[in-house]
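input
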Amino acid sequence: MRSLSGRIIVGLAILTVGLLLLLGNLGIVEDPAQYWIYWPVIPILLGGLWLGQSLQPGPGGPAWGGVITGGFVLFLGVVYLGRNLDLFTFRTVYIWRMFWPLVLIVVGLTLLRGRAAGPGGRTAFMGGVEIGGTEPFQIQGGSYFAMMGSIEMDLRAAEIPEGETLLDLTAVMGSVEVKVPREVTLLYDGSAVLGGISFLGQEDGGVIASRRTERRAGDEARTLRIQARSFMGSVEVEEI
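output
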């Protein structure tokens, strides 16, 4: 699996389609459309790739969001391929009838699992909020919630208290961007449903995605614990 990537799989699929169309136009292949029944091989390969990558051990253990996404895509590919080849019958309508209710359940559970973050916090609803900048200020742990809006936090001049400060970041059809200084220790737990999350250049996204990791720095006395969640939105944590 490590020798493959999603880009290579999709690239090979597009190349194969192009070759079949060319051979069909030249009269070498009689009916290129007959090979369309094998299209589920693409989600099977992609799902297997994501599943294998997500099960790789990391600082926070397996990425269970990626495991769920990869398993679901792999399952869909197997179902559609088996149906196309008349290996079995399966009414795929039942999958999609369960899919969206399950997505909403996961979103609700994801939002509810956040814990009290502190006295600080801001909300952006169909608007934008900017926090921080070049002037010194006291950062407080709290819940930062963007719904169809955006929150931008620049912590380069923030006075971070000793101990652990929890930033609870949630984006629902919106975005939250946080810039953190290099010398601060970071503990990160992020999850996304039909959205994306990014931590120091490590990006995750898809139907369901998650990542739990940390970045230790020289100042162990001051720690930022970042709890990030996105639904049809994005949360990005970058270093400055």
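quick obs: The radius of gyration is 22 Å.
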